[in-house]
Amino acid sequence: MSILICGGAGYIGSHVVLELIKKNYDIVVIDNLSNGHKEFLQKDARFYEGDIRDEKLVEKIIHDEKIDSVVHFAAFSLVGESMINPAKYYDNNVLATFSLLNSLRKNNVKKIIFSSTAAVYGEPQSIPITEDNPVNPINPYGETKITIEKMLHWFDKAYGIKYVALRYFNVAGADESGQIGEAHNPETHLIPIILKAVRDNKTIKIFGNDYPTPDGTCIRDYIHVTDLAAAHILALEKLSDQSKIYNLGNNKGLSVMEIVKAAEIVTGKKINYEIAPRRVGDPAILIASSEKIKNELGWQPKFCTPEKIISSAWNWHKNH
Ligand code: UDP
Questions:
Q1: Which tens digits make up the pLDDT trace of 30-67?
Q2: Are 179 and 300 contained in the same domain?
Q3: Which atom belonging to ligand 1 lies closest to the Cα atom of 259?
């Protein structure tokens, strides 16, 4: 039996594919390459270029490749873009996942790991954020992800499709081999923006220094993509008859300014920055509690420090 990775040529998907292959799983990737990179594909994973909305193709893959579980990354994930063009997000995230789930339902595939996000919480009621914090997204991106989580809930109740929804906090870093890394176009994420600025001798913008935090800049919880990938494998291996939702972060908040300082140490270069207005839709502080996945699945992150996360990203960025 094989595992189908939807969006397996993207940043997080390709890291999960790599870890699964290291563990000798039989892997099939479907990706429409709208955001994915052909060069991130592994030779040991069979690749289908196509869209998860193409029911004929998905059903053919399920049969030909004997798929018994799915890990689903295929989505758009830019908060700002989702505010300007929510239709694009409902179409590509909600409708495409609905189509995928229908294909699974009709073809008796009963296991799915879904990449969700901390954006489902909106402004959290308390820090660190546990999974029972009320969900209240403040942007269409988060809204599409919680809509899909709810769809999964009802597809479980009615059709017995079991799922794990993983709510990611700020994912960064790269595999230690240096062969794959974070490359979005346009890039909006802090750590790759800083590293590209160092590489190309540019100035970054810090969005707001008047937040209610010790240095005035936003606080986030950064998690290494390889630790995140390991959580997907645990979720796949331990998913039984009970669907689950888990947060994934490091239980540690770092301000934008602290990330800038850590990047200066890692790269040995001064980072030029200017203070810009706040970015719409940015909560001041997001820190995860990941106790639930640690307690229930035995997940243990290995690359917790900002230095480890940033140096692995730098290892990739300086060569690309
Ligand atoms: N940020 C920034 N300058 C940038 C990109 C991001 O100051 O060029 C800040 C952003 O406002 C947020 C933090 O860095 O407080 C992390 O943003 P990112 O887009 O990496 O992740 P998000 O928290 O939005 O998922």
A1: 999 999 999 999 999 999 999 999 999 999 999 999 99
A2: yes
A3: 14
Under 8 Å between Cβ of 7 and 36: yes
SS3 11: helix
Helix (H, G, I), strand (E, B) or coil at 215: coil
Residue closest via CA to ligand 1's atom 5 equals: 190
pLDDT of the residue at 185: 83
Specify whether 99 is located in the same domain as 151. yes
How far does residue 250's CA lie from ligand 1's centre (Å)? 17
Sign of CA dihedral 154, 159, 162, 165: negative
Number of structural domains in the chain: 2
Q: Are 251 and 300 in contact (CB under 8 A)?
A: no
pTM over 0.90: yes
* Cα separation, 120 vs 141, whole angstroms: 8
Does residue 184 surpass a pLDDT of 90?
no
Active-site residues, by number, are 141
Return the residue whose CA atom lies nearest to atom 3 of ligand 1: 206
Query: Which of 79, 145, 190 to probe ligand 1 with, by most ligand atoms within 8 A of CB?
Result: 190
Q: How far is the CA of 285 from the centre of ligand 1 (A)?
A: 11
| Ligand 1 centroid, distance to 66 Cα (angstroms) | 40
